[in-house]
Amino acid sequence: MMEQWSSHLIILPILLPLLCGALLILFNRRAFSLRFGLSAVSITVQFFVALCLLQLIEKDHWSGGIGVYLAANWVAPFGIALVADRLAVLMLLLTSVLGLGAIWYSWVRWGRVGVHYFSLFQFLLMGLNGAFLTGDLFNLFVFFEVMLAASYGLVLHGYNSNRVRAGMQFIVVNLLCSSLFLIGIALIYAATGTLNMADIAARTAQLELADRQLLHVATAILAVTFLTKSAIWPLSFWLPTTYSAASPPVAAMLVLVTKVGIYTVLRLWSLVFSSDAGGSAGFGSTAMLWGGAITIGFGLIGMFASQEPGRLASYSAIISSGTLLAVISYGQAALTSAALFYLLSSTLAVAAFMLLIELIERIRNPAAAMLALTMEAFAMEDEPTESAGVPIPGALAFLGLAFAGCSLLMAGMPPLSGFIAKFTIFHALLTEHAETSLGYAGWGLMALIVISGLASVIALMRFGVRTFWAAPVVKAPHLQITEAAPIFALLLICVIFTVQAGPLKRYLDRTATALHEPHHYIQQVLAQPAVSSKGETP
Amino acid sequence: MEAVLAISIGVLFGSGVWLVLRPRTFQVITGLLLLSYAVNLFIFLMGRAKLNQTPITLTDNIDPAQYADPLPQALVLTAIVIGFASTALYLVVLLASRGLTGTDHVDGKEPTP
Fold first, then answer.
1. How many CA atoms lie within 13 A of A413 on its CB side?
2. Sign of torsion, CA A19 A25 A27 A30?
3. B9: chain A residues, CB-CB within 8 Å
4. What ipTM was assigned to the predicted interfaces of this complex?
5. Three-state DSSP class for residue A196
6. Contact at 8 Å (CB) between B55 and B68?
7. Domain chopping of chain A, boundaries
8. What residues of chain B lie within 8 A of the CB of A153, using their CB?
9. Which of A40, A65, A255, A499 has its CA 20 to 30 A from that of A78?
10. Which whole-number Å values give the CA distances from A394 to A37, A270, A425, B74, in the listed order?
């Protein structure tokens, strides 16, 4: 009986937002508190479900920490299997934390404009959770579409011509990607005769040459889809326009949507092209390394070039995608674990920054900002008109500190978790290649990561100085506690990551080790027996 | 039969790509539709083209080579539904953009000559 219930927990992160989203459609617009409360409760429950799954995995409830749920009781290669392993649960936790932050932030304003905001938000969470949990390629496509359909609606949220234009391009890019996704899936089916990820991985080693080549073509086409989602150069031009046009809570969630692409690449690549894969082992790692490195370079130039905070955050997200892809491409457990730490820290930081932007915009008087820019361009001294010693209002102090925190995290400067993440990446790169040479690519990657951090510092500080220190620009902002609290909470989590880096890193080490030993995953999924008895619980 | 299917998929895909790259939203949506037709046919073909054969049924002692593969058919159905819904959504956004900006150019403004 207990076994039954714990395995049903795995499907809950998908069912819960689905039901809650459907329920929320029924309430009319006046019942705002009710709709807000329901969605907040739903996300909180998702958070606790993810925590339970984490507990079950860590307590070795399932062998090897991999829980398998067979939907409709069909055994694995035939039916759809949901798989909760360490990586999936980690992503579930990240999703619910970010979701809570974003929904909390929308209490003041964004939840009140437009219709069906909360429903769409729940469907977005459903798509995200599903994409993290599923063990079937076609099912992954379906959850991607659920996620994207919700995000189309959310990008348009707070309807203006700017958002409609950005949304239109976002939709076209993603519809094209979906076509490529389907072609990739069809080719994989033609090559291996299965769509279950574990089954594909199990069959890869024995494929004949013709089928193997077909599988490589298929994965390359699939990779184009995932890399477009994660904004790898040259597939990243849609991102800055969309992210800077979307409303703040939506932009914060979209930061996570980019990470889904990286997650899928990591999952599929470590499963199908692991060292057990015979002739296919490590297929495409060079392309991933170079793609990631060029993306860091592109993001770096973009950061220097942008003035608007929205675009700064977008290019920061691009840099973080590039770093992740390049680091993952080494296919070594120590590096993957470092990359996961970086993923957690950078996602939270960029999301918090997306929320912060709107509050910062409030203290910038556009005309005065323009004046400050002109004065800077013509190198005019700005005379201090007021005497020194004006007390800093609390709201302004909060904004300044939060901005500094976000900047430190995004740039990877000490003392916050961004620095620890980059440090572990470098450490892993050097220790894993202690005997063999790191090569030009490795040193180049390290140099790029350092330079990208420097670029972020310069770009963000330039923006910060113009905003907070330019005398004629600043006016005391009106802040509500519900707007400031989620940003504070997200940054606080990053501080906790910094303080508790040891236990977190050990968990991530276990995650990465399990990822790079996929035979256990494959065996666990394919050997999961169907529930036999007819009379008992379903 | 493979040749006919392959050529028609190629023609549909090629026209779709060309139309998607055009500057007017109506051309883009027509291109997306053609692309999704091509992709659906492609999925269908990946289950190997077979003429006049029933999908596998649950009886014992059958030779699977004598039957058509039912899985791609299920995939195509799902893909059609999802593609149809997203295209409809795009149509709504297209009309909204036309109403807000007064032009059907994908950039939301007429190019200056």
1. 15
2. positive
3. none
4. 0.91
5. strand
6. yes
7. 330-375+394-521
8. 89
9. A65
10. 29, 48, 37, 60
Q: Which residue segments constitute the domains of chain B, with CATH numbers given?
A: 2-50+68-101 (1.10.287)
Selected for mutation to probe chain B from A152, A155, A182, A215 (highest B CB count within 10 Å) is: A182
Alpha helices, DSSP H, located in A329-438: 333-363, 366-377, 394-411, 417-432
Cβ <8 Å between A171 and B90:
yes
**C-alpha torsion angle, residues B99, B105, B108, B112 (rounded to 10):** -130
**Torsion of Cα atoms, A52 then A58 then A60 then A66, to 10°:** 80
Phi, psi of A211, rounded to the nearest 5 degrees: -65, -35
Q: Which two tokens stand for residue A502?
A: 């040891």
CA torsion A354-A355-A357-A359 (nearest 10°) is 180
Chain A residues touching residue B85 (CB < 8 angstroms):
149
Which of B45, B78, B93 is nearest residue A164 as measured by Cβ atoms?
B93
